[in-house]
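Batch manifest line 686
LIGAND: NAP
JOB: complex structure
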Amino acid sequence: MPTSRTTATALNSYAYGQWYAGKGDGIILQDASTGQAVATIDATGLDYQAMLGYARDKGGPALRAMTFHQRALLLKSLGLHLMANKEAFYALSTATGATRTDSWIDIEGGISTLLSYGSKGRRELPNTQLLMDGDVEPLSKDNSFAALHLLSPMEGVAVHINAYNFPCWGMLEKLAPTLLAGLPAIIKPASQTAYLTELMVRHIIESGILPEGSLQLICGSTGDLLDHVGPQDTVTFTGSAATGHHLKSNRNIIANATRFTMEADSLNATILGTDVNAGSEEFELCVREIVREMTSKTGQKCTAIRRVLAPADRVEELMQAVVQKLEAVPIGLPNDENVKMGPVASLAQRQEVLENIEALKTEARVVTANPEAVPLVSGNAADGAFLKPVLLHCEKPQEATKVHAVEAFGPVCTVMPYEHLDDAASLVRRGEGSLVASVFTNDTEVARELVTRLAPWHGRVLIGNRRSAKTSTGHGSPLPMLTHGGPGRAGGGEELGGIRAVKHYLQRTAIQGTPDMLSAVAGRWISGASTKTDAKRHPFRKSLAELEIGDAVLTERRTVTLDDIEHFAHFTGDTFYAHMDEAAAKANPFFEGRVAHGYLIVSFAAGLFVDPDVGPVLANYGVDNLRFMAPVNPDDSLQVMLVCKEINPRENEDYGEVRWDCTVRNQDEQIVAHYDVLTLVAKTLH
Ligand code: NAP
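JOB STATUS: finished
ARTIFACT:
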């Protein structure tokens, strides 16, 4: 069982299947509050090329041999395992300066992201190795040639270079989509807080849940790693824009067109709406959010609010309310239960923040008290990287540059006035692209106007008002199901956003050929491909083990009478004129007279294709893509072709999903309805 570190032990990397101690002396990493040594870090002597090769040759093939559902289950097991061991991470996390609440965001936020992808992977992806993207594109009139897009896992490795502020979440939020896609990963945590990442990786490796080679760790420098990445690899970077630009311009990355995703710093803003006055619920919510974003993780969140825009006549009241709350925030040791804000992660970080405050002060005045004179409720100010929250006021933001450009990565924020919404939007855009903006308003027009203007410059926009006061996830929280990233200065990258993030690690390829060929390649029946009908055995009599893609049934015919339509209308209560009134129906531009209800057609179709006896088909759980394509008039005769389109056995159940292509035609072979029928089918016959 891995143990928490209490003394300055040397961090190890995990490379080519073993723990590796660097050959150098190592850099000492200090506890953010006490300055005591926590660990040393060094990766001297690592063979980076061998690490890449190990991931490509060992981890990649093992992951790609699995289906999306199997890999999703790995994520679930891993998430549950880490959750069961979370206290070990909490214990070490205090060394980074994080309070219990801060650590919760990092540790449990990260683990929840694994669990979320574990669940989404099984709910939203098929249980296959390849993923079809979009619809089939017919390319010939006789349906002998068509195309589809397939997404397949890249055959390389994902190198994830992470920032110091989220040693757990930063790793896990990238690892989840990477592993789900079928790629192995090499994690490079920022040195400052790498001891926590290392501990978590120890738990992951020792759990034995992941196939060997799917996860490696670099504690220390990346050496010449990026000089060896290839065309199938992906590099993701989270950190400062300066480092990101340097790495992005690596000649090898450019020459190989290696995928490079960057999440950099950002001057996120919040706007107090023109409708919001002091004392209103939205005003209080905005104040609370500013204070929370300044103090949570001691302001070391890439999504934290750095700029506050308020109507000019409400700036003073807003600043007063924020300062009052900030002064009540107890600062001290992160493991002290009374403390709400710990130190920043290191003395170097503190120094950087102080320097950035000095830069901001050339354009803004500090509203709060001296940031260095920190009244602590516990701990020793001389030892730790403690700071007071600093609120600044920039009176002329249109003329300023630094307040829109300098990210003081700590509890620092600048308030600025705006005259009208247009002015507010143009000030926000001076940030040159951010991860997130929030708008506090109870006026839908204010929200619509601002969001329309802000959306192109942001990855996420949150609207806060009284109705969501209790349920809002807040300005600064990236969620697994929502896109995280932002254009321009924010790096232009995109992470999370549910299954979208998985696709970043898959190659999209257009495949052209006959429908039979495409069906075989995609593992999914497509229109025009061969079908197999067996008069003696309805496909509903087959278990998942026997059922094959293309198994089909062509039904008897059924004539729809006027009595049927009237009966259905009165039985269901749907007496819409097009079914009941010949003259009114005729006057309708789409009909020549009374028509059958669409749902009557679907019901008759089920009556035609269903095999009623007890058997392996367990339930019908819906239809997808239902379209009524031509009207059905009294005395038309319907016939159904039902074809097994996709089979998805569930990994940990004794049944799976079967998707059937259902086409309803009339007596002229014209398609009147087309849809997918979704059923649950037992894996074996009982
Ligand atoms: P950083 O100094 O840019 O470092 C980021 C990562 O790059 C670290 O792992 C660092 O490793 C590594 N690195 C530095 N130089 C490198 C090189 N030449 N080759 C390879 N790797 C190199 O940023 P940070 O101080 O850790 O993080 C703070 C910044 O990150 C803030 O600006 C914040 O806004 C941003 N951030 C953005 C997001 C987002 O999602 N957009 C999230 C979190 C943080 P070492 O530590 O070993 O130098």
